[in-house]
Amino acid sequence: MSAYQKDxxxxxxxxxxxxxxxxxxxxxxxxxxKQKSNFLVVDAKTPLPTLEETFIEFTKRKxxxxxxxxxxxxxxxxxxxxxYHQAFPTVLEIPSKDHPYDPSKDxxxxxxxxxxxxx
Length: 119
Prior knowledge:
By secondary structure, this protein is of the alpha/beta class. The protein has a single domain, classed as ATPase, V1 complex, subunit F (Rossmann fold), CATH 3.40.50.10580. It is built from 6 helices and 4 strands; from the N terminus they run H-E-H-E-H-E-H-H-E-H. Strands 2-1-3-4 form a 4-stranded parallel β-sheet, with helices on both faces. Strand 1 (about 10-15), helix 2 (about 15-25) and strand 2 form a beta-alpha-beta unit. The longest helix has 13 residues, at about 50-60. The relative contact order is 0.18. This is V-type proton ATPase subunit F. Belongs to the V-ATPase F subunit family.
């Protein structure tokens, strides 16, 4: 494992309150010395620019290896997800309690299908 990968020890979360709370209870929460957290709770009142800025910030951080994002939240920034092609941090779309997972929307699965010529 390279030093580049070893430094990426955090999981970031962008999602609804239930998802973020559950993952924080599981121990993924972290606040660094600059008071920056590795999670964002998104609800109907969350402005789109806040969501976009948080996604960009998380993708630029060197301590984050995985970004978990609720699929219904990812739909709000689908264009950004489709344009994101970095290996680290990896972006994984996950279901939420109120919104089932739809594999046809998943940006990672779309890329895999394109690689194998299934799309």
